[in-house]
Design a protein that fits this description.
The protein has 410 residues and is α+β, with helices and mostly antiparallel strands. It has two domains: 185 residues, no CATH class; 217 residues, no CATH class. It has 14 helices and twelve strands. A hairpin with a 2-residue loop joins strand 3 and strand 4. It is elongated and about 100 Å long.
Length: 410
């Protein structure tokens, strides 16, 4: 213990005497540790926010798509892209033949190969999220801020009415009443009948730029649109039965052979959470690789500076060995100096990482950030490990010095 305390004191004296050199030496450690802390805090905050929001999606709601998962991280397979789309008739069949289902809302996507834009009194809005659905969509948890949702009569008569998302409504109307106002969307004029509250399952920082039309008005507007999503609301406490019934009906409707897998997916809130965490794990892996590069550079810098330190203190090492210091004492001294150097670099990196997380939280208020304990422990543990690993060679070189030769060194 005395040797370790003595090594810590010598390391701190060396740092005070060569502040700039010490800072440049551990710069890579600082970058690597701050990356772990900063990205770890963002991932932890994002995970908590998305998990809570997906849970608020409801235990009775299901989303049916032709894709294997809602989160298409890494792209879609050729087999998925060749699947035939879901249809409005599929929604009707589920509604009629599934006793555990409360209602089904078709969602018709606008063409994805164009940028959808809107305008109101010279105020332009781009990248609108257009969708066509029916009045039963409100059962999936829609809350209105202004006005109402469109009616079944407006849907069947293909009337040019639209319900806007919260952020789109604010950007166009500010504090004015939007109901009854005409807006232009993709070159067509629609009457605003209501503004919806932002969905609870939206991504942090994501703007609610939805523009929802009656299903048949959407088909009239985009006759070539084919891609559908089905929002299914199960009877209370009967989600599992609803999933089985929906799967059976869709396999019949889509003529899936008995020995083939489903050509669609049925997602619950729990499954969407699992899919999201799969994406997050990939991000965490990238984070580890990025921080490892910084720590590797920092470790090489520490090894170089420790080798220089051994050369500069050759006479000191010779004197200590002549006075009875053992090899283990010399090794302990230099390893302690290396660990102190990288540990302090890790502490600075923690501070920088915390500032990064606070900065992200300031820029994106809807994205909560929190520094997780695992990131703190990992950052400090790895920084200490770098000091130990890259300090072994300089320490062993110092311990092998012949005291007679060392005392003659100029």
């Amino acid at each position: 213990m005395r040797q370790i305390l003595f090594g810590i004191q010598l390391a701190l004296d060396t740092l005070r005497g060569h502040k700039l050199r010490a800072f440049l030496t551990v710069l890579g450690v600082i970058i690597g540790t701050s990356t772990v802390i900063g990205v770890g805090s963002i991932i932890a905050g994002l995970d908590g926010a998305i998990t809570n929001q997906l849970k608020s999606f409801g235990t009775n709601n299901l989303v049916v798509t032709k894709w294997d998962s809602l989160i298409g991280f890494g792209g879609r397979s050729l087999e998925e892209r060749l699947r035939k789309p879901l249809t409005y008739e599929n929604a009707v069949a589920i509604n009629e033949r599934c006793p555990s289902v409360l209602n089904v809302s078709p969602w018709l996507f606008a063409p994805w190969n164009m940028i959808h834009k809107g305008k109101y009194k010279g105020i332009d809005a781009f990248n609108l999220n257009l969708g066509g659905t029916d009045p039963s969509y409100v059962e999936s948890g829609v809350e209105m801020i202004h006005g109402r949702f469109f009616s079944e009569s407006e849907n069947l008569r293909r009337l040019p009415v639209v319900v806007l998302g919260e952020d789109l409504g604010k950007s166009w109307f500010q504090n004015a009443d939007p109901v009854g106002k005409p807006v232009e969307i993709d070159g067509h004029i629609f009457e605003v009948v209501g503004v919806m509250k932002r969905p609870t399952a939206s991504m942090p920082g994501q703007e609610d730029r939805r523009a929802l039309f009656p299903y048949f008005s959407m088909r009239k507007m985009f006759p070539n649109a084919r891609e559908h999503m089905l929002i299914v609301v199960a009877q209370e406490g009967r989600q599992a039965a609803a999933i089985d019934e929906v799967r059976a009906v869709l396999r019949i409707e889509r003529r899936v052979p008995y020995d083939k897998t489903d050509s669609f997916s049925i997602s619950t809130a729990e499954q969407m959470i699992d899919q999201f965490r799969g994406v997050i794990s990939m991000v965490a892996l990238v984070m580890v690789v990025m921080s490892s590069i910084g720590l590797l550079v920092g470790g090489i810098g520490v090894m170089n500076i420790m080798l220089v330190s051994v050369t500069e203190r050759t006479r000191e090492i010779g004197t200590r060995k002549a006075l009875g210091a053992r090899r283990i004492d010399i090794v302990t001294q230099f390893l302690t100096e290396a660990v102190v150097l990288t540990f302090l670099g890790g502490l600075v990196g923690m501070g920088v990482g915390w500032l990064i997380s606070q900065g992200v939280g300031f820029v994106f208020p809807t994205l909560p950030t929190a520094v997780p304990m695992w990131a703190v422990m990992a950052g400090l543990g790895v920084s200490v490990g770098v000091g130990l690993f890259f300090g072994i060679w300089p320490a062993s070189k110092a311990a092998r010095l012949d005291p007679v030769v060392a005392l003659r060194y100029e």
